[in-house]
Specification:
Two copies of one chain form a homodimer. The first copy, chain A, is α+β, with helices and mostly antiparallel strands and 224 residues long. The first copy, chain A, is built from eight helices and four strands; from the N terminus they run βαβαββαααααα.
Chain lengths: 224, 224
């Protein structure tokens, strides 16, 4: 269990989020990566408004921020790539395999996540807005196309490249976002891929540790 | 002038795009990076529908794809990071400076570009749609907030970190996208930053080479 208050590595996370965001907050990404490579970390818990000094480390005010001694990194793609540098279990040493892992990390974050986030924002935050009702079919079709492209490339392979890498880790967390829809289920190979990644013990531990904090800080009267 | 038909490195690009997209197509990113490090490249020109085999190299069917001998990379973040590995002019060798450059590359592509693309798609592709009219104020406000966060972090510095890196290169190409708005001009330090990057001779050469192809393939009756 790598959560350890005395660890050198620190990541930021929220004390609590509403149920729709449980298991999706992005600190899951470095938690999972650190579990994969077996490195302990401590957690900086944030509640409510971010203090002004937080923006010095994370200019967008988001979670997570990663600290390791004097080093601070924001952006989960860069954080997970940095953790990957510590172990070829996540980021191969061979230069071609390495850049292909990195390529999928960027693909997940720039070619897939924006389409999925647009659809998810419509469904979770703007449900009753007129523009959201009118826009939803187009946003869904665009997200579906992106998932189909990933599914086509994945084919019957276990992972996007020869082994599980940071690219699969980030892609999985992106594909988990539209869990309120059937978009991933529509592509059986993609659904199996996500299930395979979620079965990894490192993922299970990371998820359990994120959820444990939320449970501990659950406001009175809110049921999960 | 690194465009050279006999070069080892190949990038894909379009023969022609409508004026609103001129100078914004993403092959500008590797063109610029290759100019910065002084490496020659040849261009695979694509016209109309992508041939099915193109998807083998670029699963999303987008431009650019990067080829170097047996190596193929898609996603401009990964392509530019790969080019950066060839020269510390773009990607520092010091491990902290290095991950900070990479962090800004991810920030540009995941924290800034999606907000800017949403606004730009409304303005360029969906202008007359009812949902777009209703959504535009919110999309603009969100894009403005993202730019303010970058501007706040940049402050009065010349570049996002100590020297020009791949992070500045990608961020500049992202900040050029909303050129039909005043969003960047509203943040004078950000506007000056973009202008500074655009004045780099490598950028100028890359842009000229992209535009020269469009001019050469301009359909009859279309004026630039």
């Amino acid at each position: 269990m790598p959560v350890n208050p005395n660890a050198d590595i620190e990541i930021s996370a929220f004390t609590w989020v509403p149920p729709f965001a449980e298991g999706l907050v992005r600190d899951l990404r470095p938690r999972w990566a650190l579990e994969e490579v077996g490195l302990p970390y401590r957690v900086q818990l944030l509640e409510g408004e971010r203090p002004p000094e937080y923006y010095l480390d994370q200019p967008f005010g988001q979670v997570p921020c990663y600290r390791e001694g004097p080093l601070t990194i924001f952006e989960t793609g860069a954080i997970v790539q940095h953790i990957g540098e510590k172990s070829e279990k996540l980021l191969p040493r061979d230069s071609v395999a390495r850049i292909h892992a990195i390529q999928w990390t960027y693909a997940a974050l720039n070619s897939v996540e924006p389409a999925i986030q647009n659809l998810t924002a419509i469904d979770l935050f703007y449900t009753n807005e007129e523009w959201a009702k009118l826009r939803r079919p187009g946003a869904e079709e665009f997200a579906r196309l992106k998932l189909k492209r990933v599914a086509d490339r994945l084919g019957d392979k276990e992972w996007l490249e020869d082994h599980f890498t940071i690219g699969d880790l980030i892609m999985t967390t992106v594909l988990r976002i539209p869990r309120h829809t059937d978009l991933v289920a529509e592509q059986p190979n993609l659904a199996a891929y996500v299930a395979r990644a979620e079965q990894r013990p490192a993922f299970q531990r990371a998820l359990a540790d994120q959820l444990a904090v939320f449970k501990q800080h659950q406001p009175e009267g809110v049921t999960a």
